[in-house]
Amino acid sequence: MIRLVVVDDHPVVRDGLRGMVATQSDFELVGEAASGMEALAVVAAVSPDVVLTDLRMPDPSGGALIRLIRERVPAAAVLVLTTHDTDSDVLSAVEAGAVGYLLKDAPREELFRAVRAAVRGDTVLSPAVAAVLVGRVRPRQGSRELSTRELEVLRLIARGNTNREAAAELYISEATVKTHLLHVYAKLGVSDRASAVATAYRGGILD
C-alpha cells in the first residue's frame, strides 16, 4: 500500500485528489494539509511514502517546503503537482529534492504512474517540465568530469526516462545504467537522480 499526503491550499483540489486516490486499490490517503506549516506537521506525524504537493502556498512553500520535508522525513518522496512550469520553479523544486514534477492538467493515469514511480525512486516529469530541463541539457565544451556515456545517461534522465528506458535508448543493460548513475552521483556529490540533473545544470556540466 502506498501511503500519501496531499498538500494544497485549495479545498476543491484536495477534494479532487482525494477522490482520485480512492479509485486506486494500492493507494491510501493518510493526511492532508492546506499550508506549508500544516504539511510539515502532518508529514512528521504519519511518515507517508509520497507527499503530493502544490508549489505555491502559505509559508513555507516551494523549494523551502520540499527541502524541509526531505530533511525531517527522508523516506518520503516529494512529488510536485502544480500549475507553475517556469525555469525557476522547476529547478528550485528539483534541486530541493522533488522526485517528480507534474502539472495539474496531467491525465489521472499519468499522476498514478508518477506516484508509483516516486516510490521506486524514479524521476517523473511532465512533458512541459521535461522540456524546460532538456532545453538546457547540452554538454559544455571542455567539461571533462563526466564521461561521454555518463553525460548521455544524465541527458536521458533529465528527460524523465526510467533506468529501463535509458538502457533501451542506449542499447546497454539496466544494470549498466545504474552503474553510470552511481558514478554521476559520486562525481557530483549527490544521492538521487533529480539532484544530479539540477546540480549538473548549476555547475555548468549541462547547459
UniProtKB/TrEMBL annotation:
Q: Which residues form a coiled coil?
A: none
Q: Which residues form the Response regulatory domain?
A: 3-119
Residue ranges of every copy of the HTH luxR-type domain listed in the record: 139-204
Extract one GO molecular function annotation from the record.
Answer: DNA binding
**Which domain of life does the UniProt lineage start with?**
Bacteria
Q: Which GO terms describe its biological process?
A: phosphorelay signal transduction system; regulation of DNA-templated transcription
Transmembrane domains' residue ranges: none
Residues bearing the modification 4-aspartylphosphate = D54
Answer whether the UniProt record assigns the keyword DNA-binding to this protein: yes
Which classification does the entry list for the species?
Bacteria, Bacillati, Actinomycetota, Actinomycetes, Pseudonocardiales
Q: Which UniProt keywords apply?
A: DNA-binding, Phosphoprotein, Transcription, Transcription regulation
This protein is called: LuxR family two component transcriptional regulator
- Origin species, per record, is Actinokineospora cianjurensis
Q: Which PROSITE patterns match?
A: HTH_LUXR_2, RESPONSE_REGULATORY
User: Record keywords: Transcription regulation included?
Assistant: yes
- What InterPro entries does the database record attribute to this sequence? CheY-like_superfamily, NreC/VraR/RcsB-like_REC, Sig_transdc_resp-reg_C-effctor, Sig_transdc_resp-reg_receiver, Tscrpt_reg_LuxR_C, WalR-like
